[in-house]
Amino acid sequence: MRTPTIWVVLGALGCSNDIQVAEKQNTAPAAAIQAPTSGSSYDTTEVIDFVGLVSDSNGLDDIVNVFWASSIDGELADIDSAEPDADGQTRLSILLSEGNHAITLTVTDSAGSIGEDSLNLSVGAAQQAPIVTIDEPINFQETYPGAEVDLIGVISDGQQSANTLVATWTVLANSTLDVVDSFVAPPTAAGTTQGTWIAGTQGNYKIQLSAGDDDGNLTTEEVFVVVVDPSFSDLDGDGYAPATGDCDDADADINPDADETCGDLTDHDCNNVI
Question: What's the confidence (pLDDT) of residue 6?
Answer without folding.
Answer: 46
